[in-house]
Amino acid sequence: MINISLETGLLLAGILFFMGFLGVMVRRNVIFMLMSVEVMLNAAGIAFVMAGSHWHQPDGQVMFIFILTMAAAEVSVGLAILLQLHKHYKSLDADAANKMKG
């Protein structure tokens, strides 16, 4: 089994989080934005697992399970919103949603 240092794992998590953040900020397609949020959540999960592995504690893996649960809920709510957005505006562009009234 190959051991990865804490610095390398956190660097990977930071790069993935930054890529996800850029995807949310740059793209206007809602599907791409949801995928970018998932990348950011996975980066946070990697950071938790790496920290737990470094300190020989299972807490990081438990937090990753919570992150996966939250991501599943986020996907279901996000896809429901996405379907309603497409139904009303016939587009998946996030700029179309600024016409929504609440």
Describe this structure in words.
The structure is a single chain. The chain has 102 residues and is mostly helical. The chain has a single domain, classed as Helix Hairpins, CATH 1.10.287. The chain is 75% helix and 0% strand. It contains three helices and no strands. It has helices spanning 6-26, 30-54, 59-89. The radius of gyration is 17 Å and the shape is elongated. The model has no long low-confidence stretch (mean pLDDT 91).
Top keywords for this entry?
single chain; 102 residues; mainly alpha; Helix Hairpins; 3 helices; 0% strand
SSE diagram, text form:
Elements: H1 6-26, H2 30-54, H3 59-89
Helix pairs in contact: 1-2, 2-3
Please sum up the structure shown.
75% of the residues lie in helices and 0% in strands. With 102 residues, the protein is an all-alpha fold.
**CATH-scheme architecture:** Orthogonal Bundle
Largest sheet composition: none
Low-confidence stretches: none
Task: Examine the coordinates and then state which fold CATH places here, giving the name of the CATH topology.
Answer: Helix Hairpins
